[in-house]
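Hey,
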Amino acid sequence: MYIACYCGIRAHLVCIFFFIFFFFFKQKTAYEMLRSLVGSEMCIRDRVRLLEVDQANYERDVVQWADGIALGSPVYNGNPSPRILEFVNSFDFQDDLTRMVGGTFATGAGAASGIESTMGAMERGLRTFGVVTVGGPSWRNAEGTGIDGGEGGNSDQYWSLALSQGQRIAQLADKLRRQPPVGPGTAPAPITGVTDVLNSVAVSLGRGRWSPETRISSTCESYCRGWSAAVGCGTCKRSAFSFPGGDSICIHPGPLGTGLLCRVNQTTLEVTGESCCGVGGPCELPKPSAWDFLDTSTQWPGGCCAGAANCAGCPGGSPLSDRFPLLNDTRTLAVNRRYFDYNTNTCMEGVRPVNASEGETRVPA
């Protein structure tokens, strides 16, 4: 078993195991077995990390990279391998893993050899740190996939159960990854008078014409955190975010609490769908350097976000705003509220009607 990851699913999944597990799969290498589950070498390289526990690093492989995690171990006197437990003990309570999905699998010499208790111990460890744990869709692996070596660990039944659990972890991890959190977060509630002023500032910036004198140079941290604003940039139209995967940027409050900013056409003064910061224009991003990796003072070193203005190249990614609540937060003033309709992949204005069906849509701006 490991993890089922399909090219249509964009979640990053890490599988941590103890090597003795492969005693029951000696006819296949680890890579061949994983490839048979995920279907393509590209998916394996881009979306899945298959690691023996001694190779795994919590900070690098779990916190900074993974959306889901699967732990596997042989039975050790009714318990997981001590090395697996040591890895779980390396988790940090200061990290928020409540949006990560996990699952477990184990091997044993017989049905009553401790397979279930081994999986249960690993699950308890994951849940202790907030991980959402799931089993497979069948009653045979509802609590995780157990391999009875006494019955032949290479049977088609075990492969099928393993695939179904891996697929379930991947699908749920992808869904949680795409679903932006709703709630107070760490940003304070906006003040009505201040919001009115900031809304006016957003309009004024959009009506201004930028020049080399007004152009700003933004750091990747400022850009990826949504802090950057410049003359010649106005609040993006909702249509700029009406596409699959546009949910998080649809409701991002941006630098002024009105939403992310886009460049304004300098002739028509119409807001375009192009990011305010990028190559050329009113807000320049830093150019990448071969020495960026030496800068360990920030999670957004040098020009990690340059090129296509993509923060995925930065270890810090695109975190939630620490200055304003999300635009779908109940504390955001009505004039700036937005939500994302997942049925139509449309960024919508206002508050989703309580009695509206999920398929109801409005014409985007």
